[in-house]
Design brief:
- By secondary structure, this protein is an all-alpha fold.
- Helices cover 84% and strands 0% of the residues.
- It is built from 10 helices and no strands.
- The chain crosses the membrane at residues 46-65, 85-108, 114-132, 148-168, 174-196.
- It holds the Pfam family DUF2306.
């Protein structure tokens, strides 16, 4: 039962990651119904937007693969190479995201929310890289988990947007600044709790193995 639950949780994460990545690529290259705010960004900051969205799409899928313990142990070389590509994707997307945060919709609250997330995304990726270069596997794993919790903001952002605007029909300008923080802060807090709480750590870590 526990093994089935672990596999189900990881499969759900992978499915959502692939879904977000596929939707993003479709929106950029094939969709004829691009949201107005995205059209504005494509007109004014196309290179940064493409780097941010394509890098983020690669990171969210590769990161999900990195979280699977069996894949890490069975395909060590694959894990190392996909890890390198993942960190490069984070660097590309995070740097572009930091630039995009300056023109984010929603005023200074939204701009500071997305800018802070981009900085933490880049910083945790750098710390994960430095840790593995030193051979500190435990620290590397911890920083990567924190980093991927920020990558998953791509999913939580869309969930909140779907709930607030799709279901509740709330005002975009009032809610979006809150979402700019809510899409990643709980993710990072959960990742931090994951490492500092010694009681459930082992049982939760198996959920992504």
């Amino acid at each position: 039962m526990k093994l089935m639950l672990r596999k189900s949780l990881w499969s759900l994460m992978l499915l959502l990651a692939v879904g977000v990545a596929a939707y993003t690529i479709h929106l950029l290259f094939w969709s004829t119904h691009v949201p107005p705010f995205l059209r504005e960004r494509l007109a004014s900051h196309a290179p940064s937007l493409y780097f941010h969205l394509l890098g983020g799409s690669a990171a969210i899928v590769l990161g999900a693969l990195q979280m699977n313990m069996r894949l890490r142990k069975k395909f060590t070389a694959f894990h190392r190479w996909t890890g390198r590509v993942y960190l490069l994707a984070v660097l590309m997307s995070g740097t572009a995201g930091l630039e995009m945060s300056v023109v984010a919709t929603g005023g200074w609250v939204a701009k500071s929310g997305f800018a802070t997330m981009a900085l933490l995304w880049l910083a945790t990726g750098l710390l994960a890289y430095l840790a593995i270069r030193k051979g500190d596997i435990a620290a590397h794993r911890n920083w990567m988990m924190r980093n991927y919790s920020l990558t998953l903001a791509a999913i939580t952002l869309r969930v909140y947007l779907g709930i607030t605007f799709g279901l509740l029909q709330m005002d975009f300008m009032q809610v979006y600044p809150i979402i700019s923080w809510a899409c990643w802060v709980p993710n990072l807090l959960f990742a931090q709790w994951f490492f500092v709480n010694p009681i459930p750590r082992s049982s939760i870590s198996n959920a992504v193995s």
